[in-house]
Write a structure and sequence with these properties.
Layout: H1 3-17, E1 21-25, H2 31-37, E2 46-51, H3 55-62, H4 66-72, H5 77-89, E3 95-101, E4 116-125, E5 128-137, H6 142-157
Parallel strand pairs: 1-2, 1-3
Antiparallel strand pairs: 3-4, 4-5
Amino acid sequence: MALKRLAARVGRHLLKAGLHAATAESCTGGWIAKALTDIPGSSCWFSEGFITYSDESKVRRLGVPPAVLKRHGAVSEATVRAMAAGALRGSDAHVAVAVTGIAGPGGAVPGKPVGTVWLGWATRSGGAIRVATALKRFRGDRESVRRKTVRAALQGLLIR
């Protein structure tokens, strides 16, 4: 399914459920928010996006604890959990998706090869925030890893 059709499906899902979404993106650089806002009428269900490419911006804009980044690294489950929760706390959204990964061609470290991506989806229910995560190992060049990340992020929004 093309990203545009998938994003439109996400929009219909959110609109029907009366939900607003936010994004917190690192390796995709705003591509998830772009896919969503390419859909006419997206202002009815999309709140805002945070592009937090650097560790400093993850701390400043999303409240990711510096200790999490130091201990686990930017590409980790702990970081994506904090990013997703931070996107909800920093917006009026009901659901948020966060991504952090190594799109390549460089950046790989032991245990985290190119294509390693952590995704997180946060939901707000009352005052509580719940976060679900997924680790993906995508193959391909930088463009392919990023496109697959956007697709996985959007697909995850359909089940929230």
